[in-house]
Automatic annotation (TrEMBL):
It comes from Nannocystis radixulma. This is Xaa-Pro aminopeptidase. Keywords: Aminopeptidase, Hydrolase, Manganese, Metal-binding, Protease. Residues 9-141 form the Aminopeptidase P N-terminal domain. Belongs to the peptidase M24B family. It comes from the Bacteria. The keyword Iron-sulfur does not apply. It catalyses: Release of any N-terminal amino acid, including proline, that is linked to proline, even from a dipeptide or tripeptide. Its EC number is 3.4.11.9. The keyword Nucleotide-binding does not apply. Its cofactor is Mn(2+).
């Protein structure tokens, strides 16, 4: 394996994104916060991850910062950052100075964050609209509202207060839906590392190991290849634990004869992969497990085939449902035909969730799912997941050999003019591939 590289922001791409956004903002203003590290317990914190939209536009990873965009004015872009004292430098290391940040990030001005409420009235004066993320950053909302009230009070002096507040997340979501070249490169890297982690987990799987061990080995592989870590909480679910869709306890053991479901993705430059694979702990599927797995795999492949321009997430879901319902009928769990099973939702006890979500800087990425009351048509440059599954409750209605079994097969797919591109193809999913790989580490 080549030496891992260290992720670094594409600052030219961030500047291009700001320019694209400026064309849409017109004379409006945009405010975003990088956020603050959440408290873990007492006076300790989780590792800081900047807010996705803030990082998408700046490439800056400093906590407690605020970005202002005001196209056509001076400064057209400004960053407010905390000023360090000697104690902060001693405990947390040196941050870039104002001059360093301005030169490196390409913004017009950098101010101390303590001056936000002082400077904001001047910077918002005359803007009719202000975009800010609703209900996510009380500090930013307070500063914006205070600035608006200051400007309202200055009406006789010719100051003009904004009259309309809009949600910045909706504005940014549209830019993030179609991945630009830098976003796509980061996402490809994230998915490639995710696939390598899944392969490492498969090789390490054997009866007697703990779910927690597999999680640690998987995330070690992510970091070994340069990722910052997982892009979301890793799911390693052995046996019946796979029937809990977001199982993250990782306290169970791997038992011979059972299946292991792993749902995990690496984060690279704040873009994340999202792959799920299910495979036999002992390295061989039982006949019943294999039959059920092949149904889920066929549904996954049908959903991928439907991931084309002009299609939709609803169409992908329907393609998967038809395969799953036909398979449930073959297993004797649904007696109705496919159309009736879908219409009456007879599949719900075995497949209770949807099939797809957008993927990007957030694992459940931004972007509207419906437009004009209808499912959003797919465009080239959209990236989404295709993740059908089958989950068999431990009831008498289910054949004994399938009771408690949970299966999901999830891939990350790019919509292109030539058809779907499976970004996560590096993670094996066919029965023969899995049986040849599991436990061989």
């Amino acid at each position: 394996m080549p030496s891992p590289s260290v992720a670094a922001p594409d600052l030219a791409a961030c500047a291009a994104r700001r320019s694209r956004l400026a064309a849409r903002l017109g004379d409006a203003a945009l405010l975003l916060s990088s956020g603050a590290p959440p408290t873990r317990s007492g006076d300790t914190h989780y590792r800081f991850r900047p807010e996705s939209n803030f990082y998408y536009l700046t490439g800056a990873a400093e906590s407690g910062s605020v970005l202002l965009l005001r196209p056509g004015r001076q400064p057209a872009s400004a960053l407010f950052m905390p000023v360090q004292d000697e104690r902060d430098v001693l405990y947390h290391g040196r941050r870039p100075s104002a001059d360093e940040a301005r030169e490196r990030l390409g913004v017009d001005a950098v101010f101390p964050i303590a001056q936000l409420e002082l400077e904001l009235p001047r910077l918002l004066d005359g803007a009719d609209e202000v975009y800010l993320p609703f209900s996510t950053c009380p500090m930013l909302e307070r500063a914006a509202f205070a600035a608006i009230e200051r400007l309202r009070a200055g009406d006789r002096r010719g100051e003009v207060a904004p009259t309309c507040l809009r949600d910045a997340r909706a504005l940014l979501a549209e830019d993030r839906m179609v991945k630009d070249a830098a976003a796509m490169a980061a996402l490809r890297r994230a998915v490639d590392i995710s696939a390598a982690g899944h392969v490492a987990a498969m090789r390490a799987t054997r009866a007697g190991r703990l779910e927690l061990e597999i999680e640690a080995l998987l995330e070690h592989e992510f970091r070994r290849r340069g990722a910052s870590g997982p892009g979301y909480e890793t799911i390693v679910a052995a046996g019946a634990n796979a029937n809990t869709l977001h199982y993250t306890a990782a306290r169970g053991a791997l038992v011979a004869g059972e299946l292991l479901l792993v749902d995990a993705g690496a984060e690279w430059e704040l873009f994340t992969g999202d792959i799920t694979r299910t495979f036999p702990v002992s390295g061989r599927f039982s006949p019943a497990q294999r039959d059920a797995y092949e149904i889920a795999l066929a549904a996954n492949e049908a959903g991928i085939a439907a991931t084309t321009e002009g299609s939709s997430l609803d169409a992908i879901h329907d393609a998967c449902l038809r395969v799953l319902c036909d398979g449930l009928r073959a297993l004797g769990l649904v007696r109705a035909g496919v159309d009736e099973a879908i219409e009456e939702e007879l599949y719900k006890p075995y497949y209770p969730h949807k099939t797809s979500h957008w993927l990007g800087a957030d694992v459940h990425d931004v972007g509207r799912y419906t437009v004009g009351g209808r499912a959003r048509p797919l465009r080239a440059g959209y990236v989404l997941t295709v993740e059908p599954g089958l989950y068999f409750p431990a009831t008498e209605a289910v054949p004994a050999e399938l009771r408690g079994v949970g299966i999901r097969v999830e891939d990350d797919v790019l919509v292109t003019p030539a058809g779907p591109e499976v970004l996560s193809a590096g993670a094996p999913k066919r029965v023969a591939e899995l049986e040849a790989l599991v436990g061989q580490g």
